[in-house]
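Anyone able to model this chain together with D-glutamic acid?
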Amino acid sequence: MKVGVFDSGLGGLTVVQAITKTFKGAQIFYIADTLFAPYGEKSKEQILKHSLDVTNYLINKHKIDVLIVACNTATSAAIKFLREEFPTLIVIGTEPGIKPAMQNTLTKKVGVLATPATLNGDKYQELLNELSKEHDVKVFEQACAGLVEQIEDGKTNHPETISMLEDWLKPMHLNSVDTIVLGCTHYPLISQIIKDVMGAKIKLIETGTAIAKRLENLSSQNGHINDGELSIKVFYTGDIKIDMINMILETWENGGKIVVRDTNE
Ligand code: DGL
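re: yes, here you go
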């Protein structure tokens, strides 16, 4: 089984990490579309175009069977179109985990951190409206413009990044938010700062594990045997901080066989 995964940058590696914990016998081709990162401050049309270009590359060059859009922003802007355009491809998207957050909160106050494009997208608004009918929970949203750039720059523990998060999290802290949805796949990479600001008891909702489960189910329905080596190749379209890739991979217990390449080769 050949699995293509993409994000605007390093964030989708948090999804790949979850996949490596249980998924076997496959080749993963990861594209960090850093030439056009960040996606979250672009128009829907631009995000759709970049998502389509990366998908075409993964299909033509690597003959993928499965596409994982490991980016909330690209999922919101492009998943419907990608499913229509490639009907034989298994397409898995990433959506903010608002549902588990609303089910888990004890204070009935939930925070959502995401990119401006995700929070302004129809998909998020529809999901929130739907869930708000079933749950009496107050939602504190925060668009984190500039946070993806900080992470891509390797500033995951930098005073500037800490100060941005302190400002954004203040209303959540003051209002006893006990559960925060990480609505961007980059944000697990700064989860320690969120814990430091909000207190160790804060519950953070990521989507990597849910995506890994969905991949296992859909691939086994398509005849995949979950056994054998998992190889991962990481490609990127623009600049990337190799140190950051190495730092992320060091935290993985089972990183598979990882090779980092440039798409231009
Ligand atoms: N990791 C992407 C997401 O999940 C980041 C988007 C961006 O590049 O701004 O939304």
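The chain has a mean pLDDT of 94.
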